[in-house]
Design brief:
Blueprint (H helix, E strand, L loop, with lengths): L6 E2 H4 L3 E3 L5 E11 L8 E9 L4 E5 L3 E5 L2 E4 L15 E3 H5 L3 E3 L6 E11 L5 E12 L2 E2 L5 E4 L8 H6 L5 H6 L5 H9 L3 H10 L2 H8 L4 H10 L2 H10 L2 H9 L3 H10 L2 H11 L6 H4 L6 E2 L5 H8 L11 E5 L10 E6 H6 L23 H11 L3 E5 L5 E6 H8 L18
Parallel strand pairs: 2-7, 14-15
Antiparallel strand pairs: 1-10, 2-3, 3-4, 3-8, 4-5, 4-11, 6-7, 9-10, 10-11, 11-12, 11-13, 15-16, 17-18
Helix pairs in contact: 5-7, 7-9, 9-11, 10-12, 16-17
GO molecular function, one term: magnesium ion transmembrane transporter activity
Protein name: Magnesium transporter
Keywords: CBS domain
Length: 423
């Protein structure tokens, strides 16, 4: 097989996958190996490939013709497009093997797997023959050099290590660096529940909050139940208020009240306000944290606010101008300024001079159908929600609308009765 003779898993993940004619198919997300009861290197069964649609499929190693720094090329033939489902006695190298605790034979040293290398055999099979390990000192991992040892030099990380005692997840979390929260959520859905919990424990509150918002309700509830209540409240605080309110609405009254009591007063007050609206109304769809400026703010100040990387592109498409106070519910709502208008105006001018006063606003009681028609009529990605007394209550973004228009359970993986052939 042309290309590399030895490939480390951490270098392989994220590489593009091409068809025989050079067409882009997707990206490598993991390797699937078969567990063995002896100390022989496990055989690599195939590659988990994430398609452009974010579906993950299994590609047998016999279909792989080339592996190099440019990516993986597949041979001609069909690929089973069923969603990848892990079978018993199979292990995901990145998802499960990395961070596994092992023992180095001879020295007896306790170590953690930080990478694994595969290479082809004469029979065209690929095996994981080498592993990179870092020794542990008690519960701590020494920050010394990484050792690369033969597979046979470690105790095989079988059922006890991968399915019993807890693993660290820092190596797996590191592989998520640079990935969008939605893609990390997709990856988590493919992991066993135990491993998902370990990853949740290793993620910081802000990152976990972003990922949690992209998961199906059942997975959200499972992870929130796994966290202790103090940390669960911290993660809810880190979520966008509308996402946090949606999750709290799924809890029992007792659990909801406990989390609201543990949250910071300002955060819990926003969540309570959103919980007061029906989920399929403008009030239930909105976020209470749009970009709000006073009329004496300059165009330059407005542009500085929309440049904030923590603000979504949809929310950054429009700033709202109101009398003080600027926190929602604000003082009198005066109008909005579209980002295109901000880019065309001199930076020293006031936002009050660039207002769009003609755009109508949505009342918090507007039903989902009315909100949908509003976005379609005005070709917007963000819209103001204003009460009868002209107070700005929040803003709705188009992604909030789509979440409620798509079929229930759209985030969940397709359930299939067959899986990709393990060739």
């Amino acid at each position: 097989m042309p290309g590399r003779s030895r490939v480390f898993a951490a270098q392989l993940t994220g590489l593009p996958v091409f068809g025989p004619d050079g067409e882009s198919i997707g990206k490598v997300r993991d390797l699937v190996v078969g567990l063995r009861v002896d100390s022989q290197p496990p055989r690599v069964l195939g590659v988990v490939v994430e398609l452009a649609t974010r579906r993950r499929v299994f590609v047998p190693m016999l279909r792989v013709t080339t592996i190099d720094s440019a990516g993986i090329t597949l041979a001609t033939g069909s690929v089973n497009m069923r969603h990848f489902t892990q079978r018993p006695n199979e292990v995901l190298v990145v998802g499960q093997l990395l961070d596994a605790r092992v023992q180095v034979r001879g020295s007896g040293a306790q170590a953690v797997v930080v990478d694994a290398a595969m290479e082809p055999t004469r029979s065209r099979d690929w095996v994981v023959d080498r592993v990179a390990v870092r020794e542990r000192a008690g519960r701590l991992v020494r920050r010394g050099p990484v050792r690369v040892v033969d597979w046979g030099e470690i105790t095989a990380p079988g059922v006890v290590e991968l399915n019993g005692s807890p693993q660290d997840a820092h190596q797996l979390v590191a592989s998520f660096e640079g990935m969008r929260a939605a893609d990390v959520a997709t990856a988590l859905q493919d992991l066993p529940a135990k491993r998902r919990h370990e990853v949740a424990d290793a993620l910081d509150d802000e990152r976990l909050a972003d990922v949690l918002a992209e998961l199906p309700e059942d997975d959200q509830m499972d992870l929130l139940k796994h966290l202790d209540e103090e940390r669960g409240a911290d993660v809810l605080e880190a979520m966008d208020p509308d996402d946090a309110a949606d999750l709290l609405a799924e809890l029992s009254e007792g659990d909801k009240e406990r989390f609201l009591e543990l949250m910071e007063p300002e955060e819990s007050a926003q969540a309570k306000r959103l919980l007061g609206y029906s989920a399929d109304t403008a009030g239930g769809l909105m976020t209470p944290e749009p970009i709000v400026l006073t009329p004496d703010s300059t165009i330059a100040e407005a542009l500085a606010r929309v440049r904030n990387p923590d603000i979504t592109p949809a929310l950054a498409s429009m700033v709202f101008v109101c009398r003080p106070p600027s926190a929602t519910p604000t003082g009198r709502y005066l109008g909005c300024v579209h980002i295109q208008k901000l880019l065309r105006e001199p930076p020293f001018e006031l936002v009050a001079g660039a207002l769009d006063k003609e755009l109508t606003s949505l009342p918090p009681t507007a039903p989902l159908l009315e909100v949908t028609r509003y976005f379609a009529n005005y070709n917007l990605v963000c819209a103001p929600v204003v009460d009868d007394e002209d107070h700005l209550l929040g803003a709705i973004t188009v992604d909030d609308v789509l979440d409620h228009l798509l079929p229930e359970g759209w985030r969940e993986r397709p359930q299939t009765t067959e899986v990709g052939t393990r060739a």
